[in-house]
Amino acid sequence: MLKGLSKEEQHDLKEMIIKQSVSDEVAYFLLQTNDAQQRLTNICRLNNSVVLTQLAQDENIEVRQCVAGNPNTSVKVLAQLAQDENANIRRPVAQNTNTPIEVLTYLAQDEDDYIREYVANNPNTPVEVLAQLAQDKDHYTRHLVARHKNTSVEILTQLAQDQNRDVRSSVAKNINAPTELLLQLAHDEDQHVRHQVAQNPNTTNDILKSMLKHVQSISDEQDYYDIVRTMLLRNSLSDEILDMIATHPAWNIRKKVAKRNDISFSLMSKLAQDSEYEVRFEIANLPDVPVSILRQLAQDQHPRVAAAARIKLKKDYDEGEIYEQVLKRLARILF
């Protein structure tokens, strides 16, 4: 196979077939290199269970590490490597998406913190094991459980009471968190937790409103500013929440509100009279701003606002005015 091929051609051939299911002969060909690091890389990507099984017995720790982390390694070999005396071998087993549930269950009791963390982060870890790891002394393990897609509501409820803010933040971020739990965390003492609630797509407008009132009540201006900025990243907000945010003293916050396409006519009219010209300018550039507001802004004292409104009037409402005149004539005929 190698005959007649240059080193570069051999490398290219190996790259082309490394992830394919290959015969034993081809597998050994892929491992023929003087570059030790490249050999390890190829082992990590090799797709031949027979050769991987043989390499699992290798004295070299790095070789066994690569076998342990290879998703093509057989379940039997992973179970064997999970009992390796070296934690650096057990760690990639805990990370491997091919590791079976029974092996993950075994590794969840490992004395090595990193191994339990990897189990808590493995997408295949079952809820029973996550429940066990939710009690772990290592806070980062609990944090990983709190953000796991398989974590049950019962476990999330437990972790929402955790003393560590990172754990509670992960609960607030988890899309499995129910609304009653999100409401609880919306009033959390730590702003990082509240920010995650504000970003969770399942957080309702009622919860957001409750959070705004809570943050206002504790008189933390910076926190209120940050929460409002986070909320404005959401695609949809109720009129009531937008009205609340539009009263913010910071003009750049009101500007962000003025840029949104989902603001009501009443709020649009209010912001068209804002003391800051950049807010009024954003209103003038909204795609569906009514002609009555544009006419008002066309007379604005700031030339940039007035020019934007006049340009939009000419561009968007020449045909609209004709349509309006037709409606008036039709109304006179009918009534």
SSE order and pairing:
Elements: H1 7-17, H2 24-30, H3 36-45, H4 49-55, H5 61-69, H6 75-81, H7 87-95, H8 101-107, H9 113-121, H10 127-133, H11 139-147, H12 153-159, H13 165-173, H14 179-185, H15 191-199, H16 205-217, H17 221-231, H18 239-245, H19 251-258, H20 265-271, H21 277-284, H22 291-297, H23 303-316, H24 318-334
Short structural summary:
The protein contains 24 helices and no strands. It has 335 residues and is mainly α. About 4% of the residues have low confidence.
Structural overview:
By secondary structure, this protein is mainly alpha-helical. Among the domains are: 1-99, no CATH class; 266-335, no CATH class. The chain contains 24 helices and no strands. It has helices at residues 7-17, 24-30, 36-45, 49-55, 61-69, 75-81, 87-95, 101-107, 113-121, 127-133, 139-147, 153-159, 165-173, 179-185, 191-199, 205-217, 221-231, 239-245, 251-258, 265-271, 277-284, 291-297, 303-316, 318-334. α11 (139-147) runs parallel beside α13, α13 (165-173) packs parallel to α15 and α19 packs parallel to α21.
Total DSSP E strands = 0
Number of helices: 24
- Name the helix and strand elements from N-terminus to C-terminus, one letter apiece: HHHHHHHHHHHHHHHHHHHHHHHH
Main sheet record? none
What best-fitting shape do the alpha-carbon axes yield? elongated
* Average pLDDT number: 86
Cα distance, first to last residue? 92 Å
What portion of residues belong to β-strands? under 5%
Poorly predicted parts: 12-24
- Round the Cα radius of gyration to an integer and report it: 31 Å
Helix content: 55-70%
Judged by helices, strands and strand pairing, the structural class is mainly alpha
